[in-house]
Design goal:
Elements lengths: L22 H8 L6 H14 L4 E7 L6 E6 L6 H8 L21 H7 L4 E8 L2 E8 H6 L8 E2 L17 E7 L11 H18 L1 H4 L7 E4 L2 E2 L14 E2 L3 E5 L2 E9 L8 H8 L9 E6 L2 E7 L18 E7 L20 H23 L10
Helix pairs in contact: 2-4, 2-6
The structure holds adenosine-5'-diphosphate (ADP) and magnesium ion (MG).
Length: 379
């Protein structure tokens, strides 16, 4: 390439070559971001919530290699232009301010979450009565001669029946077909049913505040069955200890923290004890629960905090669970990742969080070892 020079201003223009990624390989690489089926579906539901849906239906349908997963919401839907933008990668600026209810950030979730599970993604949306439908098919991209980004019009042949899912109302349908990352060799119908259970537990936890918020009245159904919220702190139990809510200033932003010590095993009946353990068990579920705009990002982590070296999860502290609320305007400070499953506290609040956690851990240890006798609090 030639070196171009502006004679007048003597400004050197950059020498460049055009270097777009090859569509098929780029998407193949993005498939490995590390989503599970549960975290991928949570990312799809984030979009439904951001579009003000109050009903989300997830349909798992087993047919061996032809199995499908569909998510149908009754949100505002997208017009043709919005749907086209939604399907493209790199169409939104991650640095933009987001609406207060927007659970998105990178403009990638719909695509990266979907491709982590399937090879064909079809999105149909209806807004103000007008329907549109676009589709990515990784097999079509892989077989194309020129590495182009071929976004296909309409549903695949044979899949049209899915498109009637939202009846006469506005909303959006996300359809995953060719589930090559789920239906791997040896994966059978029982595995599919077990997967549905895992997804149900995950969504019950991640969206518990939306599911129990009477103003929002969000309902998530899996194959017609309502997902019940799972609240980690047992705040309604009389033997749970809860600190006052602390508001910590982190630069111009406020972080809200409330510490909880759950009741000793003796204070819970067997069913309560099993349920409160959470899907990963008592010891794994201790620590901070980080919420971003009410949506749970991290379920039980000591966030790398500790004195000298980071605390590890130990049985003695298993009753300690701390709620921490941040807003989406603090994403960069907290280093939110694309999967929205990682967050790091900014340095300015680490000391304060360490002190609160230290106190809560000590209270939790005492309840754990004192077999359910109430711990008198100084507060
Ligand atoms: N279910 C939906 N209803 C309405 N709009 C949606 C829906 N899903 C995605 N979108 C639109 O597509 C855009 C891109 O979604 P996504 O790839 O998940 O990135 P992000 O959520 O970070 O913006 C969203 O910002 C939104 O405008
Ligand atoms: Mg999103």
């Amino acid at each position: 390439m030639k070196l171009a020079m502006s004679a007048e201003k003597n400004i050197q223009k950059p020498i460049y070559r055009h270097a777009p990624p090859r569509a098929c390989l780029m998407i193949e690489a993005l498939r490995g971001l590390g989503y599970t089926t549960s975290t991928a579906l949570a990312d799809i539901i984030d979009n439904s919530i951001a579009a003000n849906a109050n009903k989300v239906d997830i349909l798992f349908s087993w047919a061996g290699k032809l199995s499908t997963i569909a998510v149908i919401d009754n949100g505002e839907g997208m017009d043709e232009y919005e749907l086209d933008n939604a399907m493209r990668l790199g169409q939104k600026n991650p640095l933009d301010e987001r609406g207060i209810n927007d659970l998105g950030r990178f403009g990638l979730g719909l695509k990266t979450a979907s491709f982590s599970q399937c090879r064909r993604l079809t999105v149909a949306s209806r807004k103000n009565g007008a329907s549109n439908c676009l589709r990515w098919d990784l097999d079509v991209l892989a077989n194309s001669q020129d590495d182009g980004w071929y976004l296909l019009e309409g549903a695949a042949l044979g899949s049209e029946s899915h498109m009637t899912a939202f009846g006469d109302s506005d909303g959006t349908l996300v359809l995953w077909e060719n589930l090559d990352r789920i239906v791997t060799p040896g994966f059978n119908e029982q595995d599919f049913l077990d997967l549905i259970d895992q997804v149900e537990h995950h969504l019950a936890m991640v969206f518990h505040r939306f599911l129990s918020d009477v103003r929002r009245c969000l309902q998530i159904n899996i194959n017609g069955r309502a997902v019940e919220p799972w609240e980690p702190f047992l705040t309604n139990h009389p033997a749970t200890w809860s600190s006052p809510v602390e508001r910590i200033s982190s630069g111009s932003r406020i972080v809200e923290v409330q510490c909880h010590v759950l009741p000793h095993k003796d204070r819970l009946d067997e069913r309560q004890h099993i349920l409160a353990a959470g899907s990963n068990g008592w010891t794994a579920q201790q620590g901070f629960y980080v919420y971003r705009n009410q949506r749970l990002l991290l379920a039980g982590s000591w966030l790398g905090l500790g004195r000298g070296r980071p605390w590890t999860k130990e049985e003695a502290y298993r009753l300690a669970r701390i709620r921490l609320d941040i807003s989406n305007s603090a994403d960069a400070d907290w280093k939110i990742d694309i999967r929205k499953s990682m967050a790091r506290p900014p340095v300015v609040i680490r000391d304060k969080l360490t002190r609160l956690a230290e106190d809560t851990r000590e209270r939790a240890r005492r309840v754990f070892t004192h077999q359910g006798h109430p711990v008198l609090s100084a507060d």
